[in-house]
Amino acid sequence: MKRWVILLLVVVLVAGIAVPALAAGNRPPKRMPFNLVGWVMAVDTGTATVTVEVVRGNRVVKPFIGKTVTVQVTAATRLLRRAEPEAVPITLADLQVGDAVSVHGVLSGDVWTASRITVGAKLSGQP
């Protein structure tokens, strides 16, 4: 009887150690909100992506300043153009290379997904 109790205790301890360690490798990438401002370098309506040269942004974006990032556009992404008195909706095809944009979204792993892209961001410098 003692052997069975000891064997059961060993199996439970091993399972208690192994299961969390195995599960850690299957976690999805951390989702981090980002805000960036930059210049549109390319628009691909076929893959629904916008490549942006980053000028400034929040702490998530800081390592990418001066580099380009490719942002995924989904059906839920709001695309807007600043106009007075308020922003007006646009389509992905309305974005042009050289547009100054602000982009808000989520970075998950190495995938940038936009929740909103607004044309007409205030930038200093030239594209």
Topology (SSEs and partners):
Elements: H1 2-24, E1 31-44, E2 49-57, E3 68-81, E4 88-89, E5 100-108, E6 111-119
Parallel strand pairs: 3-6
Antiparallel strand pairs: 1-2, 1-5, 2-3, 3-4, 5-6
Commentary on this structure:
This protein is α+β, with helices and mostly antiparallel strands and about 130 residues long. It is about 20% helix and about 45% strand. It is built from one helix and six strands; from the N terminus they run H-E-E-E-E-E-E. It has a five-stranded mixed barrel. The longest helix has 23 residues, at about 1-25. The protein starts with a helix and ends in an 8-residue tail after the last strand.
Q: Could you give a short description of this structure?
A:
The protein is elongated and about 80 Å long. It has one helix and six strands.
